[in-house]
Amino acid sequence: MIIVMGGSRGRSGLLPVAFVSILSAMIACSNARAGHAPATSPPFRVTLNDAAFRMHETDIMKEFIAAHPEFELAEVVTDRKKTVTSGFDYLLTNRVKAPAAYGSGSTVSIVPSMHHLTHKSLMGRTLADSPGIAPRSFGIPAEMENLVTYIREHPEESENVWVMKENKHRGQGVTPVYLNQLLGRMLVGIQQNDGKNPVVLVQEFVEDQLLLNDLPFTFRVWAVFGGGFNVS
Predict the structure, then answer these.
(1) Does 15 score more than 50 pLDDT?
(2) Of 210, 208, 207, residue with least CA distance to 219
(3) How far apart are the first and last CA of the chain?
């Protein structure tokens, strides 16, 4: 059993990049199994939790499954209250529904602590431990004091562009702002949000970005382990 959680989607008209990684993982698993199983092995059963995604987001998965006889669409879940725990080899769902399927004889499963990368604030803190691979970031409110100190000590960067990020996805809740206006804009956001700060991360803007069809994109790697071996 393989539990695969969906990722973010680009703007309308772009192929959801995270799903490309998922398809690659599915093909890898199919090829791995083909090397160890008889030619008459049954198709991999795929369950799609449509209720966990926006309309049409799983269409590409359905088209892929229909075009590959080694896969079979076992179920399409449309009820948000329904939790699927068995009857599949692949489950495409979200992090809310995924835990129910953990420990059910799965070969590969999503790591439960993945929120350290998907939660904007925790992601900034995690990447900060690996200098050089991510823009300078400050988690809010935990690192607010550090942010204020940085702004005060770097007046030469006052007109550099930063971004304020709320804990949302698919490009929502991202606001570009000059560094010298950041605290003021954050205060306005607090006043408009009943005294609560919606910003969870502020991050230095990367101006020379690598784009795909003039849009930003992400890479996600899905590791598939086959067989019993010690990876420690």
Answers:
(1) no
(2) 210
(3) 22
